[in-house]
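Good morning N.,

You mentioned wanting to compare the apo and holo forms, so I went ahead and generated the holo version with zinc ion. This is what I fed in:
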Amino acid sequence: MFQITAPLSVIAGALCLLSACAEAPGQTAPQTSEHSASEQSATAQNGAATAILNAGVMANVGAESVKLLFDPLYDNHFGSLAELPPELAEAIITGAAPYDDVDLVFVSHAHGDHFSASMLVEMLLNDSDLWLIAPGQAYDQLKEQENWHHGLATQVRTITLRNGEATQTFDLAGATIKAFRSPHSGWPERHSETHNISYRVSVSSGDGEVMRVMHLGDADPATQHFAPFADFLSAKRTGLVMVPFWFYQSDDLDAILEETLNADTSVAVHVPVNVPAYLSEGTRPYFTQVGEVVEIPITAQ
Ligand SMILES: [Zn+2]
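and this is what came out, ligand included:
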């Protein structure tokens, strides 16, 4: 599906020249495997999804270049995931380039490897134009922070859904956001009480076209969980879906991406430091280093 036209290190390196990557020691090692880079080099930030770390991704979408961050700030690497360097966290919180003028921040779920309540409150305090979309479980933790004040509630939209329930929709900052809840990986034995939210975000690219991305948090890959959303998912083509890495281990990965999720392209995120062989020996893109880039294909409205 992907034709490799440029080593990822070239693309990531070019982006890092423009970004705060140099301030994050150890995060700019050249990426030698040819697992990523889409059909055209993503030299312009707009229309690109850029790795932060772990499940964190920045996406710049649409004609107005709406800037989205998914799971950007987190407290815990649980020993197997990349640690969020303090310099990188600081750049995101304070809005230093390339994290300036962020429009929307999404939290998939309130686990420590996807979410930092204290850092997100700091980020909200620094930018009164910022919207935060998060499950109610995350919001409950935000309100417990010492630096929280009730005025920040106007910048937060909370998701309160049951598994399989019809999507919640928001129109914010020029983006149409559809949130849905499906079980967290490990279901039903583990994390069954965790509200795991997937977000599908669409922004017009003009001329009847759209950039549409979807981030699945820690979703369990069993297709039965997506059955309640079949009509919703099949109605609109997604340009890029960001999946937790274990999706790539599925025997029917092609069908999950192409049919169930109805996506043009994918990138795996949340990848452990010790990259599983089914990723490194596979052909589909995945993120392991800050600044890595994949293109977001434009799709019809
Ligand atoms: Zn989790």
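The chain has seven helices and 14 strands.

Happy to go through it together on a call whenever suits you.

Best,
F.
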